[in-house]
Amino acid sequence: SDMRFLHSTLATALSILAFANVMETLASPPVGGVCNPNAPPGNLEKRQQEALADFARLFLAQKNVQAAFDKYIPGQYIQHSPAVAQSGRQVALDFLIPSLADPGFSTSNLKAFAGEGYGILHYKMNLFGGLGATGGISLAVADIFRFQGTCIVEHWDVLQQIQGNEANPIAFF
Question: Does the keyword Amino-acid biosynthesis apply (predicted)?
């Protein structure tokens, strides 16, 4: 039961990263004015790579959820997680800000990739006594994002628990 709750909580945390319904948000630029949903095509892939790397730095490395959202997520979210029943920027912020501030939450092995309008963050998520976990748990995570211009507008996630006894010595990373 604890494991089911933890998995559901983790799926919710990552899935809330699902991103913006662009049609509702193009009328006003995101706070900070960094992302541009109408970015011109020249050098766009490189700018999306830079945006995803900066998003990852703010969001996971610095745990500054608000700054990451203000720069790269313009509004309502398109979510693809079966564990999340409600979309919305504020729903995401309300959940993610305290979750990432939890002292039991950490990430490592972070890699960011982007191309052809999509990006992937691949990392290890560690929960030790936080977010309802008893003991510790580690997950391999792949967050997949879709861009419009340099704004993140859609999200999918894949989570796999790391047991520590995998047959493959290079499993996950």
Answer: no
